[in-house]
Amino acid sequence: MALKSITPMLYTLRVKESVDFYVSNLGFTCVGFDEDWGWATVSRDDIEIMIALPNEHETFTVPKFTGSFYIRTNNVDELWNELKEKAVICYPIEDFNYGMREFAVFDNNAYILQFGTPLE
After folding, report:
1. How far apart are CA 87 and CA 33, in angstroms?
2. Nearest to residue 34, comparing CAs of 15, 48, 14?
3. Contact 107, 101 (CB under 8 A)
């Protein structure tokens, strides 16, 4: 038995708006959408994110997540130049003493997406 991957599922009351944000602003492709289910999947390269209406068994008022989604990339500077004008910046690109060059943006639901490349 082995765990193979993880795909975050981001809850929102605005599934279509969220898909449009990921496609138009972050360069993802919508690979699945079902309005009746209130569900979608977007992907870019090896990254896949599901977007869905909240589970009926959970209390939901606003999107919430007490961390961030950290996405490793092979060229964080190129990605920074691509995204910096298309999303609200959480923090700009910089080198960190723990060996990563990274930046972070907020998606349209205020989830934090960090992007980083190890320093050489």
Report:
1. 23
2. 15
3. no
Name residues whose C-beta falls within 8 Å of residue 102's C-beta, 6 or more positions apart in sequence.
76, 93, 94, 96, 114, 115, 116, 117
* Assigned token pair, 31: 């690979």
Domain 7-55 has CATH 2.60.40.420: no
Q: What is the value of pTM for the model shown?
A: 0.91
CATH architecture of 65-120: Roll (3.10)
Residue among 50, 44, 109, 97 at smallest CA distance from 72: 44
| Intrachain domains 7-55 and 65-120 with the same fold | yes
Cα separation, 49 vs 32, whole angstroms:
11
> For 9-56, how does the pLDDT look when each residue is reduced to its tens digit (9 = 90+)?
999 999 999 999 999 999 999 999 999 999 999 999 999 999 999 988
Q: Residue 63: what residue type?
A: P
Report the half-sphere exposure of 99 (CA within 13 A, side-chain side): 2
In the chain, what are the domain boundaries? 7-55, 65-120
